[in-house]
Amino acid sequence: MSDMSLSQQQGNGPKRYIPPHMRSSNFGSSSTGSGWGQETSGWGSNDNGGGGWGEEPKRNSRWNEGHSDFGGFGRPNNQWNPSPTQFDERGSYGGYRRGGSGDYAPRKREDGKGYWKDGVHHIASRNPRKEHSLFGSPTDSHTGINFDKYDNIPVEATGHDVPNAITEFTHPPLDEHLLSNIELARYTTPTPVQKYSIPIVLQHRDLMACAQTGSGKTGGFLFPILSAMFTNGPNPVPQDDRPSHGYRPRRAYPEALILAPTRELTSQIYDEAHKFAYRSYVRPCVVYGGADIGFQLRQIDRGCNLLVATPGRLVDLIERSRISLANIKYLVLDEADRMLDMGFEPQIRRIVEQEGMPGVMDRQTLMFSATFPKDIQMLARDFLKEYVFLSVGRVGATSENITQKIEYVEDSDKRSALLDILYAQSAEQGLTLIFVETKRMADTLSDFLAVQGFPVTSIHGDRTQSQRESALEAFRTGNLPIMVATAVAARGLDIPNVTHVISYDLPTDIDDYVHRIGRTGRAGNTGLATAFFNRNNKNIVRDLVDLLKEAKQPVPSWIESIVREMHPGASGGRGRGRGRGQSRDYRRYNDYGGYRGSGGNGNGGGTGGYGNQDSSRGHQQRGQSKTSWF
């Protein structure tokens, strides 16, 4: 060690080891004693705009404690790679924790990610490139040509002390940062379901909401939940779950849990949560079956405040002790009726009742769906307390923005009829979604159309997750503007610019038909729905006639003849047994003073129901308004 040179031999600076091969260079002979050359080093002044760093990097006062000024890749610290000196002990899941106060900051600041520290929400810097990726360009459309009609949609709400509806996002005020993200998305007017759900959730009420497909249900629960999280900050890890000996737990402790029935719907909800959590401390994550669980776990390891999940994959992660539900404040069941219809009730009951989730009195529970039949409502009451029942529009009915055409086509003629429709469409018309009943038919029909020269893809349950995601991406972007699908894509998917839905095979349940054609006519836009009908579909003929009449669509004379043949003496529809009834609150009718309709036709008293109080005011600038249709 006799040949070792220290920097104090060249000046009065701090001790610093100089490697032998650099002792004769400017690095080792700086007149400042700092050991950093003025012009020849990589840290030069960079006056000419070269590749130097511009100045000597700052030294970390905690070097001797084992912390480095450089990230894992040798980069100096900056706003995306902060020094650990600004944080305290390594603690709770997803970052550093100061004692048990619940103040969190990320271990490594991510681009576009903020943090919570000392009771303050630190918002990250804006990133124009990421904003364009999340929110698109200012020319992107977010509303349809018939938006004005949505102001007159009837709304019914029942329950005790139902909060008043809002007319804008700022009254009652949402969190300021969330409002800035809503502004980036160019949404200025809440949809009917959001006008009612936002104040209900902000006042800590449980909610069961029925709303038309494409009516903005996702924003109806995401906006108030994110607003509360931005304002109140994260909860500390429960005392019983805190690790001992300073070890960081491997389990995530999300505060908001959103359950949905399908992989596609969970991905869609996650995308919206990721968008509106931009620059905040909230880390959304998504988990679903059929995808790489290792990748999903790595995302959770980076922090998870809001979790979107399918029931099966969530149970798997709970059994692996990677997710704890002890911190849940918000539970959302989206497409709740579909989850129960698909047989998820045992998993849902296990998640809600047997895995340490706070009880019904200690959490807020929200249920959203397009339909809530009576039997589903009876099951749902076990998960909610003193809830508000909200029915927006004709639940179980279709939008009047959709033009419905029923064609009589025998099975042997369906391919020919489909070709006639597709050849008649212009290339600029938009996206066409074709529904069939079986997976085999989806592949067979897709292959047939491809042979005929049409740009087509298909999606069904037997395709891998990567294949499904690739097909959806190709369809969304218009690279393959025709998609053949089974019912897996019929619920919850929000694919903009679907202008034509073709029911090549009609379903056996009228509600499935409603959800299918709900893929078009979204966001107030107009759409076209064509259905191939023959006598094999006679089991839904009466409900179909009622549906057409409710939506003010022409009823072909031949289909009315079939109804009369099947039911002599009938004069058309019977009033859909699962239509109007699905929008009713099945709790005792007299408990809430009856129902009051909105849109200016309210007729009842009492404190439970309330009308659309903004139907005649607050919309002088409707033509310039945009709304959040997701």
UniProtKB/TrEMBL annotation:
<feature type="compositionally biased region" description="Polar residues">
    <location>
        <begin position="1"/>
        <end position="12"/>
    </location>
</feature>
<dbReference type="Pfam" id="PF00270">
    <property type="entry name" value="DEAD"/>
</dbReference>
<feature type="domain" description="Helicase C-terminal">
    <location>
        <begin position="401"/>
        <end position="563"/>
    </location>
</feature>
<keyword id="KW-0347">Helicase</keyword>
<keyword id="KW-0378">Hydrolase</keyword>
<feature type="region of interest" description="Disordered">
    <location>
        <begin position="1"/>
        <end position="113"/>
    </location>
</feature>
<keyword id="KW-0396">Initiation factor</keyword>
<dbReference type="InterPro" id="IPR027417">
    <property type="entry name" value="P-loop_NTPase"/>
</dbReference>
<dbReference type="InterPro" id="IPR014001">
    <property type="entry name" value="Helicase_ATP-bd"/>
</dbReference>
<feature type="domain" description="DEAD-box RNA helicase Q">
    <location>
        <begin position="167"/>
        <end position="195"/>
    </location>
</feature>
<feature type="compositionally biased region" description="Polar residues">
    <location>
        <begin position="76"/>
        <end position="86"/>
    </location>
</feature>
<feature type="domain" description="Helicase ATP-binding">
    <location>
        <begin position="198"/>
        <end position="390"/>
    </location>
</feature>
<dbReference type="GO" id="GO:0003743">
    <property type="term" value="F:translation initiation factor activity"/>
</dbReference>
<dbReference type="GO" id="GO:0016787">
    <property type="term" value="F:hydrolase activity"/>
</dbReference>
<dbReference type="InterPro" id="IPR014014">
    <property type="entry name" value="RNA_helicase_DEAD_Q_motif"/>
</dbReference>
<dbReference type="InterPro" id="IPR001650">
    <property type="entry name" value="Helicase_C-like"/>
</dbReference>
<dbReference type="Pfam" id="PF00271">
    <property type="entry name" value="Helicase_C"/>
</dbReference>
<feature type="region of interest" description="Disordered">
    <location>
        <begin position="567"/>
        <end position="630"/>
    </location>
</feature>
<keyword id="KW-0694">RNA-binding</keyword>
<feature type="short sequence motif" description="Q motif">
    <location>
        <begin position="167"/>
        <end position="195"/>
    </location>
</feature>
<feature type="compositionally biased region" description="Gly residues">
    <location>
        <begin position="594"/>
        <end position="611"/>
    </location>
</feature>
<comment type="similarity">
    <text>Belongs to the DEAD box helicase family. DDX3/DED1 subfamily.</text>
</comment>
<feature type="compositionally biased region" description="Low complexity">
    <location>
        <begin position="24"/>
        <end position="46"/>
    </location>
</feature>
<dbReference type="GO" id="GO:0003724">
    <property type="term" value="F:RNA helicase activity"/>
</dbReference>
<dbReference type="GO" id="GO:0005524">
    <property type="term" value="F:ATP binding"/>
</dbReference>
<feature type="compositionally biased region" description="Polar residues">
    <location>
        <begin position="621"/>
        <end position="630"/>
    </location>
</feature>
<protein>
    <recommendedName>
        <fullName>RNA helicase</fullName>
        <ecNumber>3.6.4.13</ecNumber>
    </recommendedName>
</protein>
<dbReference type="GO" id="GO:0003723">
    <property type="term" value="F:RNA binding"/>
</dbReference>
<dbReference type="InterPro" id="IPR011545">
    <property type="entry name" value="DEAD/DEAH_box_helicase_dom"/>
</dbReference>
<keyword id="KW-0067">ATP-binding</keyword>
<keyword id="KW-0547">Nucleotide-binding</keyword>
<keyword id="KW-0648">Protein biosynthesis</keyword>
<feature type="compositionally biased region" description="Basic and acidic residues">
    <location>
        <begin position="55"/>
        <end position="68"/>
    </location>
</feature>
<feature type="compositionally biased region" description="Gly residues">
    <location>
        <begin position="92"/>
        <end position="102"/>
    </location>
</feature>
<dbReference type="InterPro" id="IPR000629">
    <property type="entry name" value="RNA-helicase_DEAD-box_CS"/>
</dbReference>
